[in-house]
Design goal:
The chain is mostly beta strands and about 120 residues long. Helices cover about 0% and strands about 50% of the residues. It has strands at about 5, 10, 20-25, 35-45, 50-55, 60-65, 70-75, 80-85, 95-105, 115, 120-125. The strands form 2 sheets. Strands 2, 4, 5, 6, 9, 10 and 11 form a 7-stranded mixed sheet that branches. A 4-stranded antiparallel sheet has the order 1-3-8-7, with no helix packed on it.
């Protein structure tokens, strides 16, 4: 059984920074093929779910939403079974519930991900 647990959401000022974390319980991000890709999605009130960033299990390939490039960084800590999203220069339009997700391949299509965290709220004002 795979469970993803998110943390790190908070309220920050415009231009501030925040780091989100997603931990895997009961499985291994590296060894479990079902978790070959870990991604962050977000959903603002009344808006569609959108992919923010994704990383392969090797950590060699990463992908970012255009609006996140240069500001956000996704990384893995394999020893801790954790994936992080470092967010810098946050803007009010980054306000959303952020979800981590895992699946067999990286995609901006939410349907490609099998496992999801509960979501963590990020508010920028």
């Amino acid at each position: 059984h795979v469970q993803l647990v998110e943390s790190g959401g908070d309220s920050v000022q415009d231009g501030g920074s925040l780091t989100l974390s997603c931990a895997s319980l009961g499985s291994d991000f590296v060894r479990d093929d079902k978790l070959s890709c870990v991604a962050w999605f977000r959903q603002a009130p009344g808006k569609e779910l959108e992919g923010v960033a994704a990383i392969y299990s090797t950590g060699s390939s990463t992908y970012y939403l255009d609006s996140s490039k240069g500001r956000f960084s996704i990384s893995r800590d394999n020893a801790e079974n954790a994936v992080y999203l470092q967010m810098n220069d946050l803007r009010p339009d980054d306000t959303a519930t952020y979800y981590c997700a895992a699946g067999r391949s990286c995609s901006e299509d939410q349907e490609r991900y099998t496992y999801w965290g509960q979501g963590t709220q990020v508010t920028v004002s």
